[in-house]
Amino acid sequence: MRPDVAVGVADPALAARLGLPLAGEGEAELLLVHQGDRLVLAGDAKRYGHPLAVDFVAGRAAHRRRFGGGRGQLVARACGLARGVTPSVVDATAGLGRDAFVLASLGAEVLLIERVAAILALLEDGLARARLDPEIGEIAARMALVHGDATHGLAALVASGGVAPQVIHLDPMFPHRDKSALVKKEMRLFRTLAGDDPDAPRLLEAALDVATHRVVVKRPRKAPPIEGPSPHHVIEDRTSRYDLYVHRRLEA
Fold this sequence. Notes:
Blueprint: E1 7-9, H1 12-18, E2 30-35, E3 38-42, H2 45-48, H3 59-67, H4 74-78, E4 89-91, H5 98-105, E5 110-114, H6 117-131, H7 137-140, E6 143-147, H8 154-161, E7 167-170, H9 185-194, H10 200-210, E8 214-220, E9 233-236, E10 240-246
């Protein structure tokens, strides 16, 4: 989390567990609070728009699950999901869990690692609601979540999550110089909290050490690769690109 962004938490027990201040104990730019049946992260509406929540049951996640293209989706192809092949995946930069949910909906066991405490809380809440849903509970059961910074101690985090690191998926925050890239207020709120990832080369190095079969790195289509070894393969669509670092072939 960016050190200059203050997050207040409305619930005392949650604040204590996350190690974040209670709302009202200082100047908080963002507030973690329950609204209805869900936990949301809210900020100034003019700047950030609607509060941010993780919802795997409805909305964008449900639409992508039904109509997203199955194993033909870019993330599925990058992670090696093919007919008869369903590797286990570590999403070492979980974010809002959208790519992880796609992979889990296609049958993969997925470990999500998230370093930002407030985002972790949103993921916990979204997964808890998803596990109670009769339609997607089985999908959510394939998703495990741990709190930690994958740049430091990735092997220990993976071991604690109990998912074999056949594939490690990375989606480090890429610095946007163009303000127009932040038009979506939802992403503006997320980026304000998470910040950029200047340690991406170290993250890639850690992932290459831990993954047994491949590391896949999601990038904006025209962004340079992460500093370090060159990717073995590249696949892309109109807006995104995956750089693939392959140790060995995935098999059924």
